[in-house]
Write a structure and sequence with these properties.
By secondary structure, the chain is of the alpha+beta class. The protein has one domain. The chain contains two helices and two strands. A two-stranded parallel sheet has the order 1-2. The chain is globular and about 35 Å long.
């Protein structure tokens, strides 16, 4: 959860957000806070997906896209 934590020394960050997740505003806030302190941040919005969508089969296109985003982000 974002908040009062010191974020300026974090590495470049990728965040997957689920469109229909009650926690999405927290992820949006974290992305904004990281950007404000100069941490490179990329986000991906998984359209039509609920919280925990990465636990579903990668055969679902949006799950596969989310995993591709994470793999690309992690590989730098």
């Amino acid at each position: 959860m974002p908040g009062a934590a010191k974020l300026d020394r974090l590495p470049a960050t990728g965040i997957v957000l689920s469109e229909y997740d009650d926690l999405r505003p927290s992820g949006d806030l974290l992305a904004r806070q990281l950007a404000e302190v100069g941490v490179p941040v990329r986000t991906y919005l998984a359209a039509g997906m609920p919280h925990g969508h990465l636990d579903r089969t990668p055969a679902l296109k949006e799950v596969d896209r989310s995993l591709d985003f994470l793999a690309t982000t992690l590989s730098g």
